[in-house]
Amino acid sequence: MICLDPTIASYWHAFSQQDTDALLSCFDPEAVLLYQNQIWVGCADIQRWQHQHQQQLQLVGAAEQAGQTLVQARSGQQVWCYMFALQDGKISRLIVEPGAAA
Q1: Which of the two residues, 76 and 35, has the higher pLDDT score?
Q2: Whole-number pLDDT of residue 67
Q3: Which of 76, 72, 68, 74 is CA-nearest to residue 92?
Q4: Is the distance from CB of 13 to CB of 22 less than 8 angstroms?
C-alpha cells in the first residue's frame, strides 16, 4: 500500500473519479503545473489541463525527495512521474513528466 500525504491522496482520488471540483480544491489558487514544456498557472488553467489529460492511472510508487513528493503512476505501458510541492496543505507546484516505459 502506498502512503500519501492527505492532500496528494485527495488529488489522486479526485483525478481517478474525474471530479474537477475536488481536484481543484487540492491546489493553491496560484499553483503552477508544468507538463511537457507547458506551464499552467492558477486553477482555471489547471482545470483546462485536467480536462485535456483525463486518463486512468495506476499508482506504482511514491517517495519523499528534497521536501517534495515524487509519485509514479502507470497508464498502459507509459509511466508518469508526478512531483508535488505542498504549501499550507495545498499543492503549490506539480511537475508531470513521462518516465520510462513499463
Answers
A1: 35
A2: 85
A3: 68
A4: yes
3-state secondary structure 58-80: EEEEEEEECCEEEEEEEECCEEE
Place of cell 499553483: 31
- 79, 61 Cβ separation under 8 angstroms: no
CA distances from 61 to 11, 25, 29, 54, 74 (A): 15, 23, 27, 20, 10
Single-letter code of the amino acid located at 57? L
Q: Per residue in 9-32, is it b (16+ CB within 10 Å) or e — as a string?
A: ebbbebbbeeebeebbebbbeebb
**φ and ψ at residue 77, rounded to 5 degrees:** -90, -5
Please give the single-letter amino acid code of residue 98.
Answer: P
